[in-house]
């Protein structure tokens, strides 16, 4: 009797995760900011950009040809939520900055203008459909006046 119960529970658990394994849909989430100090990272003076356009690009691993592309726009908190259908297990996928709606903060930070993401469940053990991408940023044309003092604060604990 116990063996039958264990088999039934195992069957039910497999049935409940089967849709996750067969449905290849991913929810990619991340944010876009304006680096007002041109520091190359988020600071206390950073603000998040509403209306920024973000793309998701996947390339074939062997040919490097683009095989998938879609776009989304950030909300009032600078966060984008993009749904991607299909598993991209043999592709190199990245989120990329496309366009900033702010004229004085529209230069992509070369070190923070893209983020690699894994859009696959293939042999990696990841069942979650929500995938977070690293924050990406644009550089303000001119740093804010208080940035020098703010950056000194950030560097005060370093050994530089």
UniProtKB/TrEMBL annotation:
Residues 1-24 form the signal peptide. It comes from Trifolium subterraneum (Subterranean clover). Keywords: Disulfide bond, Signal. The keyword Mitochondrion does not apply. Belongs to the Ole e I family. This is Pollen-specific protein C13.
């Amino acid at each position: 009797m116990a063996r039958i119960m264990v088999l039934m529970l195992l069957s039910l658990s497999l049935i409940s995760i089967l849709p996750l394994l067969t449905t290849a849909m991913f929810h990619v989430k991340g944010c876009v900011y304006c680096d007002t100090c041109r520091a190359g990272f988020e600071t206390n003076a950073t603000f998040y950009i509403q209306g920024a356009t973000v793309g998701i690009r996947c390339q074939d691993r062997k040919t490097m040809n683009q095989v998938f592309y879609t776009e989304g726009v950030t909300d009032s908190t600078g966060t984008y939520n993009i749904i991607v259908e299909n598993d991209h297990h043999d592709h190199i996928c990245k989120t990329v900055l496309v366009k900033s709606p702010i004229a004085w903060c529209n230069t992509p930070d070369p070190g923070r203008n893209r983020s690699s993401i894994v859009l696959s469940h293939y042999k990696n053990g990841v069942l979650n459909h929500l995938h977070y991408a690293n924050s990406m940023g644009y550089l303000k044309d001119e740093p804010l006046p208080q940035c020098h003092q703010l950056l000194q604060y950030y560097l005060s604990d370093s050994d530089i």
